[in-house]
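Final report, Chapter 2: Outcomes

The project's central promise was a pipeline that accepts a single protein chain and returns its three-dimensional structure in a standardized token representation, suitable for archiving and comparison. That pipeline is now operational. To close this chapter, we reproduce one record exactly as it appears in the project archive, with the input sequence first and the structure output second.
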Amino acid sequence: MPRLPLFPLNTVVFPGGRLPLRIFEPRYKQLLKDCLESDRTMGIVLIKSGLEVGGPAEPYSIGTQCRIDELGAPAAGAIPLTLVGERRFRISSLDRSLPYLVGEVAMLRDEDDPEAGLAAEALRPVAQKYVRLLFASQGEYRGQIDLPGDPATLSDLAGTLLYDQTPELRQTVLEAEPLSARLRLMTRALERSARTIEKKIMRSGPGRGPTTFGLN
């Protein structure tokens, strides 16, 4: 069973999502050094209890393996980097003998799910509407957005759209099995977000600034 360095944070990353970080704690600088000397991957896991900075943390058992995509020059004692989510995993056991956590993990794959295709079809127009509203709220107007046809790939993309949801809800979505259940959770979450954006637009009109979202 593979071993993966773990970085507990108060956030959730989905496969395909990008996560900018600034590493300044010695334990995580050591983790970064070890990752760079290995395969440049680490596991991002949501903190279940404990501290993000300066103390121990107990992570949820399911997280996302991420790869170091960009690495900046150290500045003011911190190292900037950007991670890209690759695959979900489940922690089987934890090793606390190093300055940082290491997990024995099993990589998760989406099994054949006869309902996933229908769930993906239900998600697709909701994701389209959400993206259009998100751009419109910033004064940008877009037509139809190309979305993946494969349900698993669509699930990964939709996960990256949930950045305005609570970490706990995003974790619930990340953990959901089978794939059709994850797609349905995403559909409901994006429907709520779309309604919120619609209300904001109706109250104040479209914004003028750039969006924070972009299709990768």
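Archive annotation: The chain has two domains: 3-107, 116-204.
This record, like all others produced under the grant, will remain available to the consortium after the project formally closes.
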